[in-house]
Amino acid sequence: DLQRRHFLRGRSLTDKAVAAPRPPWALSDDKVFLKQCTRCDACLAVCPQGILIKGDGGYPEVSFQRSGCTECGQCVAACQPRALLRSPEQPPWSWRPVIRGSCLASRQVECRVCGEVCSHQAIRFQPKLGGIAQPLVQVQACTGCGECQARCPTAAITL
Fold first, then answer.
1. How far, in Å, CA of 112 to CA of 148, rounded?
2. Please, are residues 51 and 62 in contact by the beta-carbon 8 Å criterion?
């Protein structure tokens, strides 16, 4: 029970529990996902990028500390309880990157790492007269893979 874990970890019961970042193509309703997932760790074992980790309560979560998701679908194929279901018309996640003020470009230091690692070309740099080009997220092109967050040297990107 998420509320019980929330309480036992010293968090206020009045605070809404924020759903953990689930693997790609996880069932959209977190309660349904938690009911369907058996915590078998099959998705963790097959992830070639190693971004799936054992999270709160033993359920799989995504961590973009080392890398982003290549959207290979191996985790979906390994999921026997069908808590992960890939749909051609559904993107793996609904989140998108937010670039905060600690971004080097906003501090007038040339850095284009996030744009260079984005295979979907969802981050472009808009020239700024008399300054450093600023990152601009193309929401339509972004899949939420997290590669930009993993590679940002100042951890200025959140999803």
1. 10
2. yes
